[in-house]
Amino acid sequence: MKKQNCWEFYKCGRELGGFNATHLGTCPASFEIKTNKFNGAENGGRNCWAIAGTFCKEKTSGIFARESGSCLKCEFYKKVMFEEGASLYSSKFILKTCSV
Length: 100
Ligand code: SF4
Hints:
This protein is an all-alpha fold. It contains six helices and no strands. It starts with 5 loop residues before the first helix and ends with a helix. The structure holds iron/sulfur cluster (SF4).
């Protein structure tokens, strides 16, 4: 079964070609190819908490702020943690990958 990406879970329409992408901007989670397949994602769709500049809630900026603030309380974050279990790609690994 195909795993859900954040934009499918939240129906934000800010993914590449999404209904909100033109007037609100395309979210980096949908085109970060460095994390493609990590946690079963399409690009960064299941790693959004570790990708800089994602638009969720438009409040948080900076990776650590997201990590420590709203992301840990995020239903989608918890869903991915649960679904991936022991095979989860950690934020540390993803951050390292994205910074290359
Ligand atoms: S991280 Fe970006 S693509 Fe994912 S739900 Fe939030 S706004 Fe949408």
